[in-house]
Write a structure and sequence with these properties.
This protein is an all-alpha fold. It is 51% helix and 2% strand.
Length: 221
């Protein structure tokens, strides 16, 4: 990874930490969050559920994801840094306390006492290893891409490959009113790759053992 990209990552880590400080001051309550997820479960509470914009892909698994990342993502939708119309519409109706509670709920909903630890990941080889090194993925997403170096970064190991591919492409999208994501680090990284390479990366990341899951609500079981 070149020195410019290294410096950019450090700057964005600092800015993300500062920008999410207000959200971190609000303590989330998972029990309260369970009563606030009515708008979430129709997509994130159904295994295999697929979104259709801007293309068909499985919605991300968010149970077991870090609370501070979920909060940071919802705030990004509120601010328009992430432009997905449905998610932005939902996020705009949430207070800081709502965001904190929902985030705490989804972090807790993926944890089960006595669950076996995730298996060790097989090391990447060949072309994939080269792509991971080029993108310096572990420098932010941590060991096995499942232990982020900052809690406002996501766990990505095991996430749906088609979602990861669409998310990575969204960082390359500019000038669209309803689609794309603004993030200095991720935009710089994603633009280094062709879409075919991003798809290969997404497929590998999906193959890794991780903690993310979809926990269906009783009405959907």
């Amino acid at each position: 990874m070149n020195k410019l990209l290294s410096s950019l990552i450090l700057l964005v880590v600092a800015s993300v930490t500062m920008s999410s400080a207000s959200a971190q001051e609000v303590k989330g309550d998972a029990a309260s969050g369970e009563g606030k997820i009515a708008m979430c479960i129709g997509c994130h509470g159904i295994k295999g559920y697929q979104a259709s914009f801007p293309e068909v892909y499985k919605v991300p698994m968010i149970s077991g994801q870090g609370a501070k990342y979920i909060a940071a993502a919802l705030l990004a939708y509120q601010k328009g840094e992430r432009k997905h119309p449905s998610m932005r519409g939902i996020a705009e109706g949430l207070t800081e306390q709502d965001i904190a509670d929902i985030s705490a709920y989804y972090e807790a909903s993926g944890h089960h006492d006595g669950a076996p630890p995730a298996a060790a990941a097989a090391p990447a080889t060949g072309k994939v290893a080269e792509l991971l090194t080029k993108g310096a993925c572990a420098s932010c997403h941590g060991e096995n891409l499942n232990k982020p170096i900052d809690p406002s970064y996501p766990k990505i190991a095991g996430q749906h490959a088609d979602y990861l591919f669409v998310a990575l492409k969204s960082y390359k999208t500019e000038g669209r009113a309803t689609w794309g994501r603004s993030n200095g680090v991720m935009a710089g990284i994603a633009k280094q790759f062709t879409n075919a390479e991003l798809k290969e990366l997404a497929k590998y990341v999906h193959s890794l053992p991780g903690e993310l899951q979809t926990v269906p609500q009783a009405k959907f079981k």
